[in-house]
Design goal:
heterodimer; A: about 300 residues; mainly alpha; MetI-like fold; globular; B: about 300 residues; 14 helices; MetI-like_sf (chain B); transmembrane (chain B)
Chain lengths: ~300, ~300
């Protein structure tokens, strides 16, 4: 780094004044809530009732709560369904828009548009597209397949929500891959082409190794985001999480349990602790898988 | 440097004279390859933009037109703005838009001011505890919002700010990621000019305002745009903190519209168009910064 600033004798107060707004907001609305989530998870606090210490009772209750296991299962299924698609598809898309052919900036921007839209807008657009009488079913009927109840079946609903997450995320990860592709040396491709490698072969033996660290980054980012899924499923399956609540995700359960005037803050905090632990574990898992492959 | 700038190396100067299409290294692309590339691009275009256009088309269809026909009718027969007037009769959609605008604007101001000041302090000023202060922001960035949202809600209740627009803005008022982005931007500036200014007697504030800040305008623009988009699009937090329908932002209002008038597709379609149009316009004008933000945010996130 650059040489240290040789300015020593300034008012010791001013740096803290500069940092104060940021530290205050971060302390009061991120770090304090984080600590209080941990503390509350050991109490039976409710929205209007200050809690008592109950030890591990909330965590013991979790183990016997069917809805918790449903939420955990759905959030994990979401990671399994969404992450492979978000690692591979945006890379293919980036390869498609990588070459500077006329009009390509228009296509890049157009593919990014779903990222800009609110998840609520995106969710409602797809609720209408996938409706029993919506566009996709009208098309399916027109080509003779017949109508499919995308939003009435527990599993189709979850799959549809995953598809929407992938659709909205494509452009974002495409841009990340574009930056990585720009650093792939052209000579590698040419050498491979001279050796007689076809496009698929060149993709697997030149492009993929060159952008591997970016793929790990995308896997880490998208798996953490997928595990915390809320809005897509909330909008498409409804606040109660689809038929008999079977599509409830873990964060939906946190929101449903902990908010409102009767919210069980203590129990919702215990659920939140599970969200923390799994999020951190997912990050470590992806990064470790990366290191193992490298060695 | 922005992602797009990296992605788009200089075009060869010969291009203007020769009409053939070349790739980024000035090599010619064969016509066959070009054809399938455009074919694929158009297919993906239909997939990404099509749903928005279908929503727009639905919102413009009149009450007598069949929106459920199979095969589907893509263009409205008699385009009308009737549904937009009806949304406003059903929910106070313009009040919601104004609430969203207030929240988003406040979020831009607080994030720009807060993260520029804190970023400058972390990057440039020597003081005891700087490492600890940096650590606070790094830790805060790692905390998943979804995991602390219930505690944020109880904190807001304790402050008596639940169900207010201030309560919507406060938790994200100075994003930790933004502070770290600004810190890196300031750190990348050369020291010499500031030292010269110090020798000339400029105080901390003057050095920040006259020398530091003008040099990091690009990053500041990225912070501003992502603060606007984040606040305008946010759903989970406003859903939790706002309960009074008169305080709703657009996203919460849309969710309410969908929940209450789910069968009226034209109405919901008009509502979503109102919510998404401003951001698409903003994106069309400032694409460069959107793409740049993805690069910077992803590397740090």
């Amino acid at each position: 780094m650059a040489a240290p600033l040789r300015i020593r004798r300034q008012l010791p107060l001013s740096p803290w004044l500069f940092a104060a707004p940021g530290l205050l907001i971060t302390g009061a609305f991120v770090l304090y809530p984080f600590v209080s989530t941990l503390v509350n998870s050991f109490t039976d606090r409710r929205t209007l009732v200050p809690g008592r210490f109950v030890g591990l009772a909330n965590f013991r209750e979790l183990l016997h709560d069917d809805m918790f296991w449903t939420g955990l299962r759905n959030s994990f299924l979401y990671v399994l369904g969404v992450v492979p698609a978000l690692v591979v598809l945006p890379l293919l898309l980036a390869l498609l828009v990588h070459k500077n052919i006329p009009g390509i900036t228009f296509f890049r921007s157009a593919f990014y548009t779903p990222v800009v839209a609110s998840i609520v807008v995106v969710g409602l657009i797809w609720v209408w597209l996938l409706d029993e009488r919506g566009l996709i079913n009208a098309l399916l009927e027109a080509i003779g397949i017949g109508r499919i109840g995308f939003l009435s079946d527990q599993w189709l609903l979850l799959l549809s929500a995953m598809a929407v997450t992938v659709w909205k995320g494509l452009g974002y990860y495409m841009i990340i891959y574009l930056a990585a592709l720009a650093n792939v040396p052209r000579e590698l491709h040419e050498a491979a082409a001279v050796d007689g490698a076809g496009p698929v072969r060149r993709f697997l033996s030149v492009t993929v190794p060159a952008v591997r660290s970016t793929m790990v980054l995308v896997a880490a980012l998208s798996s953490v985001a997928a595990f915390k899924v809320f809005s897509e499923v909330y909008l498409m399956a409804g606040p109660s999480g689809g038929p008999a609540g079977e599509d409830t995700t873990l964060v939906m359960l946190v929101q449903r349990t902990g908010t409102g005037l009767t919210g069980r803050v203590g129990y919702a905090s215990a659920l939140s602790v599970v969200v923390f632990v799994v999020t951190v574990a997912l990050m470590l898992l992806v990064l470790r898988a990366d290191r193992k492959e490298e060695s | 440097m922005s992602v797009l700038e990296k992605v788009r190396p200089e075009r060869p100067a010969t291009e203007a004279r020769e009409r053939r299409v070349t790739d980024e290294h000035g090599r010619r692309i064969r016509a066959g390859e070009l054809a399938w590339r455009y074919l694929l691009l158009l297919a993906v275009l239909a997939l990404t933009i099509g749903p928005f256009l279908w929503q727009l088309s639905t919102s413009l269809k009149g009450p007598t037109e069949d929106i459920y026909s199979s095969p589907p009718r893509f263009l409205p027969e008699h385009p009308t703005l009737h549904n937009y007037a009806r949304v406003a009769d059903t929910i106070p959609v313009w009040d919601y838009a104004l609430n969203s605008l207030k929240v988003a604007t406040a979020n831009v101001v607080t994030n720009c001011v807060g993260s520029a000041l804190a970023g400058y302090a972390l990057a440039r000023l020597r003081y005891r505890g700087r490492g600890a202060a940096t650590l606070v922001f790094v830790l805060a960035m790692l905390v998943p919002v979804e995991g602390i949202i219930i505690a944020q809600f109880t904190t807001m209740r304790e402050l008596g700010l639940n169900n207010t627009l201030i309560g919507v803005v406060l938790p994200g008022a100075v994003g930790a990621l933004n502070v770290l982005l600004m810190r890196n931007a300031f750190r990348n500036l050369p020291y010499e000019i500031e030292e010269a200014a110090y020798v000339d007697g400029a105080n901390v504030w003057q050095r920040f305002w006259r020398i530091g800040l003008p040099s990091v305008k690009g990053t500041l623009a990225v912070v501003a745009i992502f603060a606007f988009m984040g606040a305008w699009d946010d759903f989970l937090w406003p859903l939790i903190v706002l309960s009074d329908p008169s305080k709703f932002t657009l996203t919460i209002g849309l969710n309410y519209l969908h929940g209450t008038f789910a069968n009226d597709e034209r109405l919901v379609a008009a509502g979503t168009v109102i919510a998404v149009a401003p951001l698409i316009a903003l994106f069309a004008c400032l694409q460069r910064y959107f793409f740049r933000g993805v690069g910077e945010g992803a590397v740090k996130g």
